[in-house]
Predict the structure.
Amino acid sequence: MAAANPWDPASEPSAAGLLLGHFVASGMVTQEMLNISKKSASYFANFSRLQQITNIQAGIYQKNLEIELLKLEKDTADVVHPSFLAQKCHTLQSMNNHLEAVLKEKRSLRQRLLKPTCQENLPIEAVYHSYMVHLLELAVTFIERLENHLETIKNIPHLDENLKKMSLALAKMDMLVTKTEELAENILKWREQQKEVSSCIPTILAEDYLHKHDVTMSLPFTSKVHVQTVNAK
């Protein structure tokens, strides 16, 4: 026979049941609270869930490690990957063969380089003659402008410095232009003054001449009067 549940107020009355019934009737405890207290905590279920979370985190960490390894392999593929190494080896081998052929033909190549190449004709088909004419024009134009292009390329690292120098030169030029304008205004004023002086010179000379002429004309008249006075005495 199953034992009565002391926490269930509907079972056989007991001291605990009567006390709980009194609490339920008074409203201090509800039936839902009593039902919740009947359920036992699922410890093993929580433990298994925690174990699953731990396993998932370990799997994520492992995948992250694999991703990092793949990224590292991608970054260093041109160094350690066999296919890239094979391509590099093939390129080096072809360069080595070319250098060996050059060394074998070193004497003939030296003779060809020492031999002048003027007055020699290149066999070109007639279809390509117009293209060759255009190509030669482009080559001549390029050679003419080559020095300018090289000078421009050399000046690229000093571009900021050249711009600063150009700004200073422009500022100095503005100052010189301002001074030149002031000097031009002063020259114009001086010319006007010279014109005024030149226009006044004849008048001044005429006045001086008249003044001197009056003095010389009055002197003989005075001397005659003086002589007559002396004779009368």
Notes: DSSP finds nine helices and no strands in the chain.
